[in-house]
Amino acid sequence: MKKTVLNQAHRDLKARMVPFGDWDMPVNYGSQIEEHHAVRKDAGMFDVSHMQAVDLTGDRVRDLLRYLLANDVAKLKDPGKALYSCMLNERGGVIDDLIVYYMREDWFRLVVNAGTAEKDIQWLKQHAPDYAVSVRVRNDLAMIAVQGPNAREKAIPAIEEFAGAELSAEAAVLKPFNAAGGDSWFVGRTGYTGEDGFEVLMPQEQAEAFWNALNAAGVRPCGLGARDTLRLEAGMNLYGSDMDEETLPLEAGLGWTLAFEPQDRDFVGRKALEARKAEGHLRKFTGLILEGRGVLRDHQKLYEDDTEVGEITSGGFSPTLEKAIAFARIHADAGENLRVDIRGKKLPVKRVKLPFARAGKAVNIPQ
Amino acid sequence: MSYIPSDLLFTSSHEWIRDEGDDTVTIGITDHAQELLGDLVFIELPEVGDTIESGGEAGVVESVKAASDVFSPVSGEVIEVNEDLVDSPELVNEQAYDNGWIYKIKLADPAELDGLLNAEAYTEVVEADEH
Fold it and tell me: What residues contact residue A41 under an 8 Å CB cut-off, 6+ apart?
């Protein structure tokens, strides 16, 4: 099992540790629901050091990424600006979803998922030589996400203490989806919870002291359990559940991340996506709420009348709504009146727009 | 190490059984079980009057993490269920052996209790689980 540099800190906080892919990670530190509410109402922190930062450098790095990513890094004009994108295969399936940061004209940084890091790096290294780009895997960095309405305020003094006044001052005035810092300490106003906050990259040897400083500042340690219910409420996809190499982003609610303009930009997967769009009949990606009691789970089947029309890709209990919620992929012509099969019983579910909750509140929820 | 009361009987699938002495028993899931499951959010109770076989399904507990069947450790008729759990499943997290009880059974065969684990034997099960 791989361990992050914070493994002992989690154990000292009495975390329940579980295998997450190849990693030994905290699922909670007692109560997942309390951790979830801490992020919606105050401030929580997550060890996300299993995620992988990769630095790409070279004069033609922007061209490489305009070819490899389905979103267009031409949108990134100011240093520190971040963009969410899928990286596709030739079939239009999703190799990974990631965040790309524009550092300098000859330096872009990617942060990719833990479970896909190895194949991502292989893919990047396969294509980088064509553009004379170097791939540097940042195994020397740890990453902590600090999330919640009070997260930035609580994190700024710790950032100042460890990374200096210059970076903390820049971090304090960051706009959403922008980052400051450089080769070692790096602070992005990004996250995976639907709340304000930072994701902080730092040298591994300073991670435990920084984590302890945040804890002392009243930022609650939160496990991967709360991270999952928070991102589900926020309408954010999880790689491996909601999309994978066999899924088109067009069928995973990720159409908004595809940059088909300008039309002369050739990116990997573009031809396959355009062909499938022209064919039509793409499956829809929808939010669901279970009206009665019970819990929606991954892979439960959905029915319209007695016909199976799709399945849940991510499901769970929403602490904010106090109801079961889910994402589902359903046939193009499926209607509004769906039922879910839970242990042989077919229970009505309501289709809703995503997200379910953001910035501390439920949204889009029919009464 | 989770709490294991010495006056109860147990199963290796983490149910507890209290012998009420009148051929009825109260059944729940152990403190260790609720710790493994995490916060409970939904409990499907059996119905009063149901006849359940030993080893049969008596209900389902669902946490934020997973759904888990509750297996009946004994055979008999369900005589009472804990309706408080419908609105407050967290009682199982808070008080697994008290207000978090799940159902009561009138025993079909009181001798079935002899096949259950005592606290000492169940402690070994939990210790093996934790290593």
Answer: A148, A149, A360
Could you check whether A7-49+140-233 and A283-367 share the same CATH topology? no
How would you classify the pairing of strands A44-47 and A220-221? Answer: parallel
pLDDT at A365: 57
Q: Give the minimum alpha-carbon distance from B48 to chain A in angstroms, rounded to a whole number.
A: 19
A295–B42: do the CB atoms touch at under 8 Å?
yes
Q: Do A33 and B64 touch (CB under 8 A)?
A: yes
B38 min Cα distance to partner chain A (Å)? 7
Q: What is the ipTM of this complex?
A: 0.83
pLDDT digit string (tens) for A270-299? Answer: 999 999 999 999 999 999 999 888 999 999
Per-residue model confidence as pLDDT tens digits over B8-61: 999 999 999 999 999 999 999 999 999 999 999 999 999 999 999 999 999 999
Q: How far is A241 from chain B (nearest CA, A)?
A: 15
The verdict on a CB contact (< 8 Å) between B86 and A27 is no
Q: How confident is the model at residue A8 (pLDDT cuts 50, 70, 90)?
A: very high
The reply to whether residue A16 touches residue B86, judged by beta carbons under 8 angstroms, is no
Q: What would be the CATH architecture of the domain defined by A7-49+140-233? A: 2-Layer Sandwich (3.30)
CATH class of B9-126: mainly beta
Alpha-carbon dihedral B18, B20, B25, B26, rounded to 10 degrees: -60
In this complex, do B62 and A294 lie within 8 Å of one another by their Cβ atoms?
yes
* Dihedral over alpha carbons B27, B32, B35, B40 (to 10 degrees): -10
CATH fourth-level superfamily of A283-367 = Aminomethyltransferase beta-barrel domains (2.40.30.110)
**Domain range summary for chain A, segments of one domain joined by +:** 7-49+140-233, 283-367
Model confidence at A319: pLDDT above 70: yes
**Cβ(A46)–Cβ(A147) below 8 Å:** yes
Find which of B65, B83, B86, B94 to mutate to test the A interface (most A CBs within 10 Å of its CB): B65
Asked whether the CA dihedral A218, A219, A222, A228 is positive or negative, the reply is positive
Residue A97 tokens read as: 């979803």
> Structure tokens of A318?
């929403």
